[in-house]
Write a structure and sequence with these properties.
The complex is a heterodimer. Helices cover about 20% and strands about 40% of the residues of chain A. By secondary structure, chain A is an alpha+beta fold. The longest helix of chain A has 6 residues, at about 1-5. Chain A is flat. Chain B is built from 6 helices and 10 strands; from the N terminus they run ααββββββααβββαβα. By secondary structure, chain B is α+β, with helices and mostly antiparallel strands. Chains A and B meet through helix 1, strand 1, strand 2, strand 3 and helix 3 of A and helix 2, strand 1, strand 2, strand 5 and strand 6 of B.
């Protein structure tokens, strides 16, 4: 995986966040974030910018798929003292 | 007399237009996406007072596809957490955290979340959902509505002599419920650096 890091072209990045709202409450029920980074070699062949993420052009992609459930209340947490100290 | 009648008529028509006009206004115009995002963010922050559950599936690797689906997957993580106020609990990993600091229990003692590789990875990959939205709101490059995925309400209506037609109707809320926010490249880079610093790319 480290070859991945050395090849990542951090001058070419893109991020979109898709938010799915509950139509009734207008509260988010899902979030999908896509983070893209160009790859050296592939990026130089393709023009920089959006073309770095076109069909056939190799790029790094990360997908974060969040689900949000507001249906049940969550009780207040009982945090052990040692843990609470570390959170201050 | 005729002039004053005409003037009265004009005034009546104008008054009628002002009163009745809004009833015929075009209600199919999409709502303002920025306002919708602000409201959604506020709603989620309010939900945190009662608490809510969140999950995050992370998949990363290389892609050669225009839809960015992975052609080679190198990172796959799944997290589940409960959020109450500004604190998240991740029961599976025995973690408590805020947006800035956290603690993880290794079975013997508590450590700072960043001190253990698994804690560090969680901290960088699993954001508080409300934090994602507030970041998206900060300086969006663009915000747009995406096509709805809602099922239409099917209404059967009889027309004329025994003819039945099917009317599919989506409410305004059902039509506009998916937002796409394009984040500036600078913040996109920041997200990639977070992934990089999680250690998930170097196996540590």
């Amino acid at each position: 995986m480290s070859q991945f890091l050395s090849r990542a072209d951090k001058t070419t990045t893109s991020c979109t966040i898709d938010i799915d709202l509950d139509p009734a409450t207008r509260t988010p029920r899902g979030i999908h974030m896509t983070v893209l980074t160009g790859v050296h070699g592939a990026t130089e062949k393709a023009a920089k910018g959006k073309k770095a993420f076109d069909e056939g052009v190799e790029h790094v992609a990360f997908h974060f798929d969040y689900t949000i459930d507001v249906g049940d209340d969550v009780a207040r947490f009982e945090i052990p003292r040692e843990a609470a100290k570390l959170m201050k | 007399m005729t002039r004053s009648r005409m003037a009265l008529g004009v005034i009546c028509v104008a008054a009628l237009a002002i009163c009745v006009g809004p009833l015929f206004a075009d209600d199919s115009a999409p709502p303002n996406p920025l306002k919708a995002l602000k409201k959604a963010t506020r709603n989620l922050v309010l939900e945190a007072r009662q608490g809510y559950r969140a999950g995050c599936d992370v998949a990363g690797g290389l892609s050669t596809k225009a839809d960015h689906s992975l052609t080679s997957t190198t990172v796959r993580e799944t997290y589940r957490g409960d959020i109450h106020g500004d604190i998240m609990s991740v029961p599976d990993m025995k973690v408590f955290r805020t947006d800035e600091k956290g603690a993880v229990f290794d079975g013997v003692r508590w450590y700072a979340l960043q001190a253990l590789p698994e804690g560090k990875k969680l901290d960088r990959l699993f954001a508080f959902p409300a934090h994602l939205l507030t970041t998206a709101l900060r300086s969006p490059e663009s915000i747009e509505w995406l096509p709805s995925t809602e099922e239409a309400d099917v209404v059967e209506a009889e027309e004329g002599l025994g003819r039945t037609s099917v009317v599919k109707k989506l409410t305004q809320e059902q039509l506009y419920h998916r937002l796409r926010v394009k984040v500036p490249d600078k913040e996109a880079l920041q997200y990639f650096v977070e992934v990089q610093n999680s250690g998930c790319l170097s196996g540590g």
